[in-house]
Amino acid sequence: MELSRTVLLGYSLFLAVMLLVNLLYFLQVYKYRLPGDASIIVLTIHIILLLSIIAATTFYIGGVS
Amino acid sequence: MPHLIEENINADDEAFLYLNLHPGERILFIVRHHWAGFLGTLVMILGMGLVPVLIVMAAGALLAQGLGNVIPIIVLFISGFFIFLLTFLFGAWINFYFDIVFITNKRILNVDQKGLLARGTSELDLRQVQHVSAQVEGFLQSTLDYGTLVIETAGAGTSDDPTRPGLQGYFTIHDLPDPNRLARTIIELRHTLLGENDQT
To answer: Among partner residues A18, A37, A38, which is closest to B84 by beta-carbon distance?
Structure first.
């Protein structure tokens, strides 16, 4: 089954909102991090996990569309 | 727990500028909340992460009935759900990790991260400290050595403890590591600041 344009548009909008929220979180971490704390490490892990999910989903959508 | 209570801090780093330290003021300790205080949130989020497993099991049943057409939509839903969950977890972690207590040679600064763009800082002059108590309650707190620090002040406090009302304020800070050591340190710093050290 191909994914309809409406479903893909809804997913894209959701993704845009989530990425905006994450961007605000990134800025907050960058602003308030202290020397030697764990925030950059956790931020990196978070970005890797997010990108993995987005990449896997994109790969899947490319396969079925 | 040296990673939760930092000492020997170089306060000249620009990361500390937002604290607006007074001339001659030095940061002696940076205290982060104990990780056990984050366990409840973590368990809840991990529990929510099990929801997609149930969905996949339901999808398996649908597939067996020949309704495999909905699988791509389910995949998108699960993907969106995990992105939401990761973002929620990261936000909760920021709220937890950026709640920091700074103990200087003159003040106690309690930085309270409140969500995405809100952040509160309450400060207490060490000379206003009347009494400090440490409360370690329950199996987890006793085992992992963390608890609540209650600082009674001569001025206004920021108490969130309804059992401690009154004109005098109470600084109540939850989930701090080694609260007994912190209580003792605060009293010693107050004595040093008031020049009472040599009189005892």
So the answer is: A18
